[in-house]
Amino acid sequence: MNLILDLARGMLRRRRRQTLVSVMGVALGVAFFIAIAGMMRGFQTYFVAQIIDVAPHITIKDETRAPPVQAAMLASPEGAVSVRGVRPQDSIRGIRAAGEKLAMLEAMPGVAAAPVLGGQALLRYGARDVSATLLGVDPERHRRVSNIEKDMFAGRLEDLRATANGIIIGEALAQRLGVGMGDTISAISPAGVVLSMRVAGLFRTGIQNVDQGQGFVLLTVQQVLQNRPNTVNQILVRLADVTQAEPLARRIEARFGNRTESWEEQNRNILTVFVIQNAIMYSVTGAILLVAAFGIYNIISTVVFEKTRDIAILKSLGFAEGDIQRLFLVQGLVVGVLGAVLGCALGAAMIEGLAQVRFGVDTPAGQDRFVLSRDWRIYVIASGFAIASSAVAALVPARRASRLDPVQVVRGAA
Question: Most buried among 98, 224, 242, 389, using CB within 10 Å?
């Protein structure tokens, strides 16, 4: 094997310029792959973290995923019964036995749960009216399932208890109303109940839909405002391990019967866009590496053509077809490994260079730079793909070289 390595190194050295071009081609492909993948994965991780940070991991709603089975179908389960045009009954909305379900959820390890009554309300300050979604919460429990208190820059979540009819609203919603801390606004619910509320806190999440149209009040106050005493229509769940959200949501829905959505289900459209985005990224960077692989194929093919007589001599000296094939395959692998190592170094430098870029603009989330991922798996994937491409590119000319007939070469027929 050492003899083959020495021969391969000698052949590459004699074509130093072409070898350097091939190595740089592989290195640039690997470097661009690392830089683009670092940006894409960093942005996706940041975006998902923002969603997970603001929204609960699991939401249990006061509705079912499918309409309830009708009595006619229950009476004849084996019959050809079809029921159409069923109108929903005028029943009181809300999660039944919410207290028992909360106790069961909180008994699970790594699970925190909190009841919520959500509802629309018209907030009025002077002559200005703004529609908003108000969430009635229990501050003690809600603190465990939401990071909203971390996004508050004025007041505390606990101030909902200390302030009579206190309300916490987003900064953008406060600007639309023209109110500040301590101001009193009127809240009008669809049930016709009107309450005077005092602004007890302001928050800024960086998500415009939340900041412009959401507010928090005490659960009991919301029940009075919506005229729905002792009712909750959502149970929010937060997990210690966010990756368990989807399977746990399915188990909860199967047990309670209420529609239960994980954060992945609620953001499925966005996550699908990420899949398409990754496919585009891998296609573009893969094309760069394929171009580099063609360069390797070209240089190995040229070496095979120029070294035809040398190959014949090696086979005459006893080199088997496998030895000849390994000789040229090693050359392709050496170019691939050198390109991968150099590409990883260039990619790391590009990542650090991009980290120094500042946009010079204020974003709602306070992010004025690229969010970059330095995941070691990106380097492994890029290097593995580059080395595999190099091996495949060298395999074809290596097989052709191993099949040369030394007798025909000496006669000048090959």
Answer: 389
**Which residues are 111's β-sheet partners?**
239
From the number of C-beta atoms within 10 Å of its C-beta (0-12, 13-18, 19+), residue 21 rates as: middle
289 phi and psi angles, rounded to 5 deg: -70, -30
CA dist 205 and 217 (Å) reads 17
Distance CA 155, CA 158 (A): 8
Quote the strand ranges of 2-73, DSSP E: 58-61
d(CA 191, CA 264): 33
Helices (H), 55-113: 71-75, 98-106
Residue 90 CA, distance from chain mean position: 41
Within 10 A of 64 (CB to CB), how many other CB atoms are there? 11
Task: Decide: 161 and 143 in contact? Cβ < 8 Å.
Answer: no
Angstrom distance (rounded) from CA 103 to CA 39? 43
Closest listed residue to residue 21, CA positions, set 378, 291, 280:
291
Residues 62 and 261: beta-carbon distance below 8 Å = no
pTM reported for the whole predicted model: 0.65
| Residue-wise pLDDT tens digits, 247-278 | 999 999 999 888 999 988 888 887 888 888 88
How open is the CA angle 46-50-53, to the nearest 5 degrees? 130
Average pLDDT, the chain: 84
Cα 141 to chain center, whole Å? Answer: 28
pLDDT at 410 over 70: no
Tokens representing 263 are 């954060």
Average pLDDT over residues 318-328: 81
Confidence of residue 330 (pLDDT cuts 50, 70, 90): confident
